[in-house]
Design brief:
2 copies of one chain form a homodimer. Chain A is α/β, with parallel strands linked by helices. Chain A has a 5-stranded mixed beta barrel. In chain A, strands 12-14-16-17 form a 4-stranded mixed β-sheet. In chain A, strands 5-11 form a two-stranded antiparallel sheet. Chain A starts with a strand and ends in a 5-residue tail after the last helix.
Chain lengths: 357, 357
């Protein structure tokens, strides 16, 4: 059995507008220590696998930028989807393509949305995951992050009996909890954050998909058969719009027996929204966080300022704002209202016909 | 006796940073209906006087820009000061220069800090002022704006007995009052806002200056004697630093007897700070005011947004902010903290060595 990795780099990143745009997804932002999240995810995986075993699934239109970001990865390892159809279809397509290449493939699925530290600990846990998948060829295996706080933005995984060193049987998956419930979860010591990262044999996940998401299974089999020919892209563009938008967690993991969880005890910071930034890059004594920006502050607290050039952002007497300047737009959003960014980008789409999207 | 006008266009406009800068004073900002405040002040005065009778006092370094803004005004009518020394010295210099040209000059002093509407009403009041100065050659005459609200940002003038149609004797000058006092002033019907605009014979104001501000008087006499020669500017640069920084109101008006006030009953909007903008350009139903800016707003109220180009300013979930984007800087200031702008520009001076000043 051979090991492969698939980095999930789809998604549009509305929540990081205006730094992320349709044509510049979150994973390509050089937001942390001058490296893109995609590059960081790749660099971590090279501690475990050679470049030719690492794949990326992303929107077709983003592949040229992804290729520039990861020149070491063979171009054929970059798998383009014609449109976003959530993780179930992305995982299925990657599984079918890997399986066609190597029917004994063990496939790890990794995200590029987090800052994960330290890398060597990550590599150790990932190796344990691959070993567990090889030892339990019928199992679906998920990575569970040891929670450091009662975060209400993540799904949780409750573990049951042990199934090896650092590996447990999953008892249940829990939706994003309220704060009280999250506190109880964390206090119990039996819960992990659902990382959205997995490892399994391609044969195993495809079997589950055949059973639980038959249309997707049939579609990716058809696509895998002609992927390398010009027909592949054409067929994908034809098939994809009809596929059901659904996550792999919801479509498969939560509806299957015998799922295992590998414990991931490390720093795991989601940078899917701006308020995650202070934890990643650190805040000053007034609680202000500046990333890349040239700024000046008077009587201002708890602000997050992100910019990309020498344009000065000056704050006077403001609190808890997120200010992001990028290209042709500047966002000024109260941090309690970040969930309304989608409303904003939708309005921009209407008013300015995609000019700032 | 001949009539002349002097527009006071000095001042640095820190309160309108970053739109106003050291090298781009407030009076040159095309902030209202695409016209600069200087241009608007000049246009108003042309209803009363020919261009060759209109003068401007400004910082020497701003004269080239002022000349571009007012090509009709003879270059020799633009009077440059080497540095700002408040209105007493600016008025004194202009008075001495006019007096040297025409000892029987009647000099109106006008500001360029306000939006004044309608212009024909203004012209009528100004003509009445000149006529009063000709009728009362020994009098200092000020224009008093009929208050429309108990504004605490202006000085007030209490009038006494009538001295002609729309002209009154001044009883007292009052400092900026608190709200309660301002309400009482307005309710009494006896008070005007101090407009900072005046009219008098040059001989009369120079007599008062000789008595009350002898150093300034002596200085401007020396300067007037050699103004047209190359020596003028050199001597001004030498003398100016030692002059006392003081306003003409405080130095002369408030310390003199027999001051008259001409009633100015018209719309008089000070645009010396950003919060004045909504009254000038109007606000939308959510109380947001946009000047020049391309903006988008979600769940935001009471904001003032000023920008100069197609860069998008997007506000989400914020209230009562002043957002001004100009050139290489963006200001985000809570409107209750606008008085701290000076702190900010001072800090910028230190941190960035004048780069954004």
């Amino acid at each position: 059995m051979s090991r492969y990795a698939v980095i999930m780099a789809g998604g549009s990143g509305t929540r990081l507008w205006p730094l992320s745009r349709r044509r510049r997804p979150k994973q390509l932002l050089r937001i942390v220590e001058g490296r893109s999240l995609l590059r960081a995810a790749y660099d971590r995986l090279t501690l475990v696998l050679p470049p030719e075993s690492i794949h990326v699934v992303a929107l077709e239109e983003h592949l040229p930028d992804m290729a520039r970001e990861l020149p070491e990865v063979p171009r054929s390892n970059l798998i383009g989807e014609p449109m976003g159809r959530d993780t179930a279809n992305a995982v299925a397509l990657a599984a079918a393509l890997l399986h066609a290449r190597d029917p004994r493939a063990v496939m790890g699925v990794f995200t590029a949305d987090q800052v994960i530290r330290p890398s060597d600990r990550f590599a150790e846990v990932v190796r344990r995951g691959y070993a567990a998948a090889e030892e339990h060829p019928q199992a679906l295996i998920t990575f569970g992050v040891k929670p450091t706080e009662p975060h209400t933005g993540y799904g949780y995984i409750e573990h049951g009996e042990p199934a090896g060193a650092g590996v447990w049987r999953v008892r249940t998956f829990k939706e994003k909890p309220d704060l009280e419930t999250a506190r109880r979860y964390v206090a119990s010591g039996r819960f992990y954050w659902n990382s959205g990262m997995f490892v399994w044999r391609t044969e195993t996940i495809l079997d589950h998909l055949r059973r639980l998401l038959p249309e997707t299974h049939a579609a990716v089999q058809r696509l895998a058969a002609c992927w390398k020919e010009a027909d592949g892209a054409r067929l994908a563009a034809e098939i994809y719009p009809s596929l059901r938008k659904i996550s792999i967690d919801y479509a498969v993991l939560e509806r299957s027996e015998g799922v295992l969880v590998v414990e991931m005890a490390l720093e795991w910071l989601d940078v899917g929204h701006w308020t995650a930034l202070p934890a990643v890059v650190g805040a000053d004594p007034d609680g202000n966080t500046c990333a890349l920006a040239r700024s000046a502050m008077v009587a201002s607290r708890g602000n997050i300022v992100v910019a990309e050039d020498e344009h000065l952002i000056a704050l006077v007497g403001v609190e808890d704002l997120v200010v992001v300047r990028s290209g042709d737009a500047t966002l000024i959003c109260h941090r309690e209202h970040l969930h309304r960014l989608k409303e904003l980008t939708a309005e921009l789409e209407t008013t300015y016909e995609g000019l700032y999207g």
